[in-house]
Amino acid sequence: MCIWQARLVSIAVLGALLTACSGNPTKQEIGTVTGAVVGGVVGTALTGSTAGTVVGAGAGAYVGNKVGRDLDRVK
Q1: pLDDT average, residue stretch 36-41
Q2: Residue 47: which region, alpha, beta or left (left: phi > 0; alpha: psi -120 to 50)?
Q3: Quick one: which of 74, 61, 31 has its CA closest to 53?
Q4: What is the DSSP string of 6-72?
Q5: CA–CA separation, 56 vs 59, rounded Å?
Q6: Predicted pLDDT of residue 51
Q7: What are the residues whose beta carbons fall under 8 Å from the beta carbon of 15, sequence distance 6 or more?
Q8: Residues 6+ apart with CB under 8 A from 31
Q9: What gap in Å lies between CA 34 and CA 60, rounded to an integer?
Q10: Whole-model pTM?
Q11: Closest Cα to residue 36, out of 56, 8, 66, 16?
Q12: Which one of 17, 25, 28, 68 is most buried, by most CB atoms within 10 A?
């Protein structure tokens, strides 16, 4: 997968996930989606492979989820 293809897919997924939320998303939800997209793009840029994209997206989603959860708790 080329970098431009990964970016296009990431933007499409982000748009779909954000429009799927009917109410106000929590910081945890926003962090999960943002982390997945950024992680996927970084994984693609570093490895140039589909596996790198998937691993990067998973790692980014995990980290984004934890950061967002902590931000939700601070309220």
Answers
A1: 88
A2: alpha
A3: 61
A4: HHHHHHHHHHHHHHH--SPPPHHHHHHHHHHHHHHHHHHHHH-SHHHHHHHHHHHHHHHHHHHHHHH
A5: 5
A6: 86
A7: none
A8: 64, 65, 66, 67, 68, 69, 71
A9: 8
A10: 0.69
A11: 56
A12: 68
Rounded CA-CA distance 57/75 in Å is 27
Q: How much is the average pLDDT of 62-74?
A: 92
Distance between CA atoms of 39 and 65, rounded to whole angstroms? 12
pLDDT tens digit sequence for 21-38: 567 888 888 898 889 889
Mean pLDDT of 44-61: 88
Q: What is the pLDDT of residue 50?
A: 83
Q: CA torsion, points 65, 66, 69, 70, in degrees to nearest 10?
A: -150
DSSP 4: H
